[in-house]
Design a protein that fits this description.
It is built from three helices and eight strands, in the order H-H-E-E-E-E-E-E-E-H-E. It has 188 residues and is an alpha+beta fold. The two termini are 32 Å apart. The chain binds the ligand O=CN(O)C[C@@H](CC1CCCC1)C(=O)N1NCCC[C@H]1C(=O)Nc1ccccn1 and nickel (II) ion. The site of the ligand O=CN(O)C[C@@H](CC1CCCC1)C(=O)N1NCCC[C@H]1C(=O)Nc1ccccn1 has 20 residues, from strand 1 and helix 3.
């Protein structure tokens, strides 16, 4: 099972690489990694297991964070407005995800962002697209094209950034970290 020791931290070069596109059919290793990434997210959001294994709760994880530079991310995104609601807003793995179009309108998490690969607080708003259209494959190579908004859209953009070697703090304005331009709103 994946634990925090398997997650590489900022400064590791793999976090700054563009990850390799995945071809199909995927190897057994990639299939196993997809399952392990989803299991990590479930464990990390389970109070007892997170405590038992010392896991930081995560709503997403990208393969590069495990030093595997391929375009795959796992997501388990709860409904922040109703966390006890069993149905997560996103639950699964996205292969070769790409934002093909987006709104002019922007959004930032009011609390800012963090990262399992960053062991420090980096204060500031992280401007994201409010609505995105993403193409991606599932583990079997089926293609999808879906629209996302709200918290799921923010998480997806954070993960897709990892596949392109981008960290959340790259988006925070140095001089005015809490400035919001006219078309960006706060969420949460
Ligand atoms: O690349 C992927 N990552 O780095 C894991 C990140 C991804 C999110 C950060 C902002 C948008 C996506 C992550 O999940 N976190 N960041 C660090 C510690 C907190 C944790 C988190 O937000 N946990 C959470 C939130 C709500 C409900 C349950 N758990
Ligand atoms: Ni991250």
């Amino acid at each position: 099972m994946i634990t925090m020791k398997d997650i590489i931290r900022e400064g590791h070069p793999t976090l700054r690489k563009k990850a390799e596109k995945i071809t199909f059919p995927v190897s057994d290793e990639i299939r196993q990694l997809a399952d392990d990434m989803m299991e990590f997210l479930r464990n990390s959001q389970d109070e007892e297991l997170a405590e038992k294994y010392g896991l930081r709760g995560g709503v997403g994880i990208a393969a590069p964070q495990l030093d595997v530079s391929i375009q795959m991310t796992a997501l388990l995104v709860p409904d922040l407005m109703d966390p006890e609601n069993a149905e997560p807003l996103l639950n699964g793995v996205f292969l070769n995800p790409r934002v093909v179009s987006h709104s002019v309108e922007g959004v930032c998490l009011r609390e800012g962002e963090g990262c399992l690969s960053v062991d420090r607080d980096v204060p500031g708003y992280v401007p994201r697209h409010a609505r995105i259209t993403v193409t991606y494959n599932d583990i079997d190579g089926n293609e999808y094209k879906k629209r996302f908004s709200g918290y799921p859209a923010i998480v997806l953009q954070h993960e897709i950034d990892h596949l392109n070697g981008i960290m959340f703090y790259d988006h925070i304005s140095e001089e005015t970290p809490f400035a919001l331009d006219e078309h960006t709103n706060l969420l949460g």
